[in-house]
Amino acid sequence: MRENLLAATHTLDEMRDISACDSLAFLSVDGTYRAMGERGRDPMRPQFTDHCFTGDYPTHLTDLTGETKSQLSLLAEPV
To answer: So what's the pLDDT on residue 21?
Structure first.
């Protein structure tokens, strides 16, 4: 769940202290693409499966939109 993720509940400085490291930083999505040799993310045709970082899923999450199909999102909260 979201509350179990450090980045969702702590500042960058707090996460650095918890991790006992000297520095901590995160790459942007475009920075991640550049690190993989791409110019950046193509929003119309993402080169990698990045939906867990961007929220830009290739299909609608039917359990979140109320559509009646058999697809389920792993992001849905238990009821």
So the answer is: 94
